[in-house]
Amino acid sequence: xxxxxxxxxxxxxxxxxxxxxxxxxxxxxxxxxxxxxxxxxxxxxxxxxxxxxxxxxxxxxxxxxxxxxxxxxxxxxx
Length: 78
What we know:
The protein is mainly beta. Helix content is 0%, strand content 37%.
């Protein structure tokens, strides 16, 4: 028997914010989402996916100058 699944789209309720940090310090970027599980995350820098960065929070320990850039997160409930 066929069935119908209706999903309300995911909604970002809190997103990462711009910040300045010192070299050598730690920083965490996080997003808060409501939606129908399973919710998938992919963090990226300059639109290039960061391998293994697939949770709602991403931490850089011991920030280096090379970590500077624009970070994005893609969220999906599909």
